[in-house]
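FAQ: What does the model actually see?

It sees only this:
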Amino acid sequence: MYKVCIIDSEETVLDLLEELLEQYKNARRIEMTVHRFGNVNSYLAASDDSNIILLGLGGMNEMPMAKKLHEARPDASVILMSESGRVAIYGYRIDALGFVPKPIDKNLLAASLDKAVRKAEIPRGGVDIQLKTVGGRRRLNVRDISYIEVRRHYLFYHVSEDGGEGESVYQARGVMQDVEKQLSGYNFIRSSISYLVNLGHVRCVEGSDVYLRHSVVPVSRNYKKSFIEALESFRKR
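And it is asked to produce this:
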């Protein structure tokens, strides 16, 4: 579940953002909640825990409020919105994830949201595992593994490295039961007898399909109940 907060002093902008976010979540097949506030102070007073924040600014004179927001929520992905291009330059000082000029363009907003979603999908930290692939040895960070698939006597590790745009696949000999035991405690669960999925990469489940960042994998009838329960528990943390 992605929690998005939109902050802007103009009601028309807030209405537009809600409409664009609804389109975005439907297009990306993700679950998203949206809260709206008229200013930073009201947002902070509400103790909102959104992990993605869209902050509209009138100009450089409002940058102190952006700094205040960053100091209060350094873990959140902040996307700045303004008619002033100078705001984009100053945004680097507060580690803003992106900048969208006003009037708001749907495609530019979606590009910034994609970055924020990728950042939110992958937990910080993680541990490395050594993998003996067909081409040699490879070190993988557990958080980057999207899912593992078994075909005959081979395991295929599907990896989204460093929040990148694409997916790499590494082939190794092994047994799924051994990998499942190795990754226990790192939010991996079977969606079927042939697939072990990282819950941190799941966008949504529709019918018998699990939508990940770059892939769609099946969830079988025998595994669906336990998979859904594990996913709901993971998202409540």
